[in-house]
Design a protein that fits this description.
Blueprint (H helix, E strand, L loop, with lengths): L11 H4 L14 H19 L6 H24 L11 E2 L2 E2 L6 H9 L8 H13 L3 H12 L2 H13 L6 H6 L4 H4 L10 H4 L1 H15 L19 H19 L3 H21 L5 H15 L13 H5 L7 H19 L7 H21 L2 H18 L4 E3 L10 E3 L13 H9 L2 H17 L7 H13 L8 H20 L5 H25 L9 H13 L5 E3 L5 H8 L2 E2 L8 H12 L3 H11 L14 H4 L7 H10 L9 E6 H5 L1 H8 L13 E4 L4 E4 L4 E4 L4 E3 L2 E6 L2 E6 L15 E5 L4 E5 L1 H4 L2 H7 L11 E7 L3 E6 L2
Parallel strand pairs: 5-6, 5-7, 12-14
Antiparallel strand pairs: 1-2, 3-4, 7-17, 8-15, 9-10, 10-11, 12-13, 14-15, 16-17
């Protein structure tokens, strides 16, 4: 097959000696000849990789492939459902879900506070009302339905960059990369299902639209002349994509920020690589897209200044829909108003300036720069600096208010992993990840529209600093790059074949099937992660039946959303209300060695409901007004009072899982608000079979042969608590250093060994002690006993 090139001669490079020019003309300067040859080779490469995607020629195949890819992804995911059929994973006819955040949306759909403004909750409520399927069932199965859509978008990306067959590999495996799959398994109904799908889809729309206006290569075209696109079609497409983008951003404010950053990136890329004569049309389309997509925004955060101030004041009109319809109407009006620039250099220049002013006005009036760019920068900074461990309240010049602990360092999502692990989470193997990165360089060089995938890949790589959660973003994009580059390489051979396109399809499908087979084996061995135990969930259901509607539940923030769903009660903290200022009162009550002090902290904090949400507390706003060097004395005075006014019923939940988190709970509970220092409990956690123990001697031994003696042993069983003390062990040199107290769950066969800081904490005492203990009974009354997994007490006022 001859190498395609504009003059039809494959040996152009060899036939032009250095400094010579054909036809006997004056030789061109050597550096110009080199540049011309490089440009020509670059154009040859663009010709080889084929023409741009054609909707008219391939939409049927794209649709058929998309259906197949979706069905394959759906079957792959639901094939793991039988692993959740164990009776201990069911409560009230529903499976226990696998992620805490899912229960937030389900709790709202169930009736806790308002569902308005929370699309994920509204979607569940709508499906439930339409089909009658249980809320928990929807939360369990939704990832199997929504997750494969990422594979369909991967197919679209492959089609855009290389052709229909170029997207098959990425379509099959792009939605099942480890980083994304780990966060979208069955039972993981959360915004992670949307935070990759929606930005990747909008990025494809922007790339598809911008590709009509961009050069086919970077600063050069593969041909001297290309027919310019119809102006009306470009503008209508911008309007349509903008309205779809508006739907995409409602699921989470982070999605909106990502989409706006993509939009601003489109502005820059088009201004750099726009085809001659089309910049005016490009800026017109960008203005139309922004007006259709962004004003109103998610939760009404982006405004169309100054009109939105008037629109939101109209009685009985939703602020979101008022701004949405008004801005969309303006965008449609601009499509009708704008015409192609008239002939004449001066008129074209005037049209260019008008479009530029309109674009700048839209960007500024929607406040997207300060809203999204600023918020994104702050969020990234919080992830980068979260491990510092403290959050200052007040300025250095005026040290008012406490020094609060940071919660980020206790969240597994911000755990840092090496680059090899990050690449493995992206493309199954680290070596394959490096190959995908190399493919990305080639694809971006030959297809400028591929640049819109780079931000997702950048997030993948940045997870080495931002935390392992961000490894969910780049895997699909890397699969697209790998699949497209593989398709181009295979084309060297298959284009010579009679049925080359079927060979391309077979190669992509075979590799995809091989990866699916490997991945299925890996994912089959993953440990199930129910949010809480069956006994814990049943205890919360019972609490909901016994309690008053205005009651408040004190439970560690990891179980906040699940508590809201099962008990339908507000909680002090949850997955969205877990800053240091929120967790300190809760951590103090759980960590203090005095049940009386725990009760007084609860009575004090319960006086200050959070004004921002219909549940939760905000006692920290009182401490924020106190000079930092007086906080200790002020807190002692507040907790010493006995005349706090009556508050709604307060319930205190302690669970077996809390004992395994005693290190982090005491980190917050023993925090010094003046100095920013703390005292953590020391704890060792053992899974079933990892620790042997001798009840008669109080001796323990692990699998490595290490062990020693403990001061006491507490056995938690369904029928009660058995506690054994070994006073003589304290005199033995074999006594374990620091961690002297062993607690064993006789049902789950788990064990924890902790020091005195954790063992004497109120949460441990309430979990392992006698409710009639004179140090407990005056302050807490046991209302639900779910030993050995959970106990729920009511604070006595």
């Amino acid at each position: 097959m001859p190498w395609p090139c504009q003059n039809g001669r494959r040996d152009l490079w060899r036939r032009l000696p250095s400094g010579a020019a054909p036809g006997g003309h004056e030789p061109e300067p050597k550096h110009e000849v080199i540049v011309q040859r490089l440009v020509q080779l670059y154009r040859n490469g663009m010709v080889h990789v084929g023409p741009e995607a054609s909707v008219a020629a391939s939409w049927r195949r794209v649709g058929a492939y998309g259906v197949v890819i979706f069905v394959v992804g759906l079957i792959f995911r639901i094939s793991f459902a039988d692993r959740w059929d164990h009776p201990e994973l069911w409560v009230a006819g529903e499976r226990i879900l696998a992620t805490h955040d899912a229960y937030f949306w389900l709790a709202k759909a169930k009736g806790l506070a308002s569902v308005s403004g929370y699309p994920s909750a509204q979607l569940v409520a709508w499906v439930h009302g339409l089909t009658g399927i249980g809320l928990g069932d929807i939360g369990f199965w939704a990832p199997a339905v929504l997750g494969p859509l990422v594979g369909v978008v991967c197919l679209l990306w492959g089609w855009l960059l290389g052709g229909v067959n170029a997207g098959v590999l990425a379509g099959l495996v792009g939605s099942l990369t480890p980083g994304f799959y780990y966060r979208t398994q069955l039972g993981y109904y959360d915004t992670d299902l949307f935070t990759l799908l929606m930005p990747m889809m909008v990025a494809w729309m922007l790339a598809f639209w911008a590709g009509r206006l961009m050069r086919s290569g970077w600063l050069v075209d593969s041909a001297d002349e290309r027919e310019p696109p119809a102006a009306a079609r470009v503008l209508w497409l911008a309007l349509g994509f903008g309205l779809v983008s508006r739907f995409a951003v409602i699921w989470h404010e982070d999605i909106q920020h990502m989409v706006i950053l993509y939009y601003l990136m489109t502005v820059v890329v088009l201004m750099i690589n726009c085809r001659p004569g089309l910049r005016t049309l490009a800026m017109q389309g960008l203005a139309v897209f922004a007006l259709a997509s962004f004003p109103g925004g998610v939760f009404g955060q982006l405004k169309l200044w100054p009109i939105s101030g008037f629109l939101v004041s109209i009685p009985g009109v939703s602020a979101y829909w008022a701004v949405t319809l008004f801005s969309a109407a303006i965008a449609a009006g601009l499509v009708f108003f704008w015409k192609p620039p008239a002939d004449g250099a001066e008129r074209r220049r005037d049209a260019l300036w008008v479009a530029a002013v309109a674009l700048v006005a839209v960007i500024l009036s929607t406040h997207m720069l300060n809203t999204s760019v600023g918020n994104t920068a702050l969020k990234l900074f919080s992830y980068l600096s979260g491990a510092a461990g403290i959050v200052q309240s007040g300025s250095a010049a005026v040290p008012m208010g406490p020094v609060y602990p940071s919660v980020l360092q206790s969240i597994i999502e911000v755990r840092l992993e090496p680059l090899s692990e990050v690449l493995e989470r992206g493309v199954f193997f680290s070596w394959l990840g490096w190959l995908a990165l190399l493919s990305s360089v080639v694809v971006v060089a030959l297809r400028p529209t591929a640049v819109f995938l780079l931000p997702l890949i950048a997030l993948q790589l940045a997870s080495v600093k931002l935390g392992i959660r961000f490894s969910m973003f780049g895997g699909a994009a890397l699969c697209v790059m790998l699949g497209v580059c593989l398709y181009w390489l295979a084309a060297f051979v298959t284009r010579r074949m009679r049925h080359g396109q079927w060979a391309d399809l077979g190669l992509q499908a075979s590799l995809g099937a091989a990866l699916l087979f490997y991945t299925f084996g890996q994912y089959s061995a993953l440990q199930l992660t129910p949010v809480l135990s069956r006994a814990h969930a049943e205890a919360l259901v019972e609490l909901g039946r016994k309690s008053e509607p205005d009651a408040m539940v004190w439970t560690w923030w990891d179980w906040g959303y699940a508590t809201q769903y099962y008990a339908l009660l507000g909680t002090v903290a949850d997955g969205g209300k877990h800053a240091g200022r929120d967790l300190y009162p809760l951590g103090f009550a759980m960590s203090t060695h005095s049940p009386e002090q725990a009760s007084r902290m609860m009575r004090f904090a319960a006086q200050y409901p959070d004004r921002k949400v219909p549940y939760g507390l905000d006692a920290a706003r009182v401490w924020d007004t106190i000079p930092r060097d007086r906080l200790g004395a002020a807190l002692e005075e507040q907790l010493g009072r006995e005349d706090h006014p009556p508050v709604p019923p307060q319930y205190f939940v302690v669970s077996w899982h809390d004992l395994t988190l005693v290190k982090w709970i005491t980190h917050f509970g023993n925090w010094n608000l003046e100095t920013g220092t703390t005292r953590e409990a020391e704890v060792s956690i053992f899974q079933p079979g990892e620790l042997g123990f001798n009840v008669e001697r109080g001796a323990v031994m692990d699998r490595q042969g290490g062990g020693g003696l403990v001061r006491d042993l507490t056995l938690l069983d369904r029928d009660g608590i058995n506690r054994r003390a070994y006073p003589l062990n304290a005199l033995s040199p074999q006594l374990l250093p620091k961690t002297h107290h062993l607690v064993i769950n006789m049902v789950s066969k788990q064990s924890v060994i902790m020091d005195g800081t954790g063992f004497r904490s109120t949460m441990t005492r309430l979990m392992t002690g006698d409710p009639d203990d004179p140090e407990i009974a005056p302050y807490f009354r046991l209302v639900v006993d779910g030993l050995p997994f959970v106990r729920i007490y009511q604070m006595i006022q």
